[in-house]
Amino acid sequence: MSYSPPPFLQSDHVSSRTRSILLRRMEQEQGRRENLSPEAFQLLETVCDDILPQQFLLGDLRLNLAVMIDQSLAGSGDGWRFAELPADLQAWEDGLTSLNQYAQALFSQNYTALHADQRGVVLDQAFDGTLPEHDQAVFSPEQMALWSGDLRHNIVSFFLAHPVVQDRLGISANMTGGDHIIQGFKADSLTDKEGFEPDHKRHFMAQS
Fold first, then answer.
1. Is residue 151 part of a domain?
2. Which of 10, 146, 165, 200 has the fewest CB within 10 Å, making it most exposed?
């Protein structure tokens, strides 16, 4: 679904550098798979929806978080990884492959063919390291616990980093200045808004 950049991006409280970064995130989210295999990417799309349903905030709009994660795997990432896991791209490929393998072991079906509650069981056991031992799985249960931590972190991080989500939530941390001056904030209350901040209440009222 196409959408327009949120109005706060045009504010003089947003620097041109910050604006270009946020617009680039929107472009990336509208892009295509570039790094993961088609099978792993399709599975990741389902997992993203399972872990973070977007309807509560975005209504009919659905951001393709899987694309954002996939495109982030092209470079060096944040520069660190668990010693027990391979480099990022391989780790995501192996983690998603393993998720299917454990789904087969638990329910005799691929992950995407399971009911929502069954997928929840697979994810919960992956998160807390209680998946059953499976000699043919690429990742051990211990490795799955480590990788699934990155999985949850990336899904939530990329969601919150998107300017449409920031607009809906009223996140104004990017509105700290402009190109020539740091204008900052004067209000020190959790509830009081500056005049230049977006009014997130209108979105929730429109959906209620």
1. yes
2. 10
Do the domain assignments include residue 111?
A: yes
Residue type, 53: P
In a domain, 2, yes or no: no
Tens digits of residue pLDDT in 32-48: 999 999 999 999 999 99
Greatest Cα pair distance, the chain, in angstroms, is: 60
Residues of the domain holding 116: 7-207
Tokens 């399709």 belong to residue = 42
Residue 194 tokens, joined:
């500056």
The Cβ-side half-sphere exposure at 207, using a 13 Å CA radius, reads: 12
| Burial tier of 112 (Cβ tally within 10 Å: 0-12, 13-18, 19+) | middle
Q: Total domain count for the chain?
A: 1
Q: How far apart are CA 68 and CA 147, in angstroms?
A: 17
What values do phi and psi take at 150, rounded to 5? -65, -40
- The mean per-residue pLDDT over the stretch 14-26 comes to 92
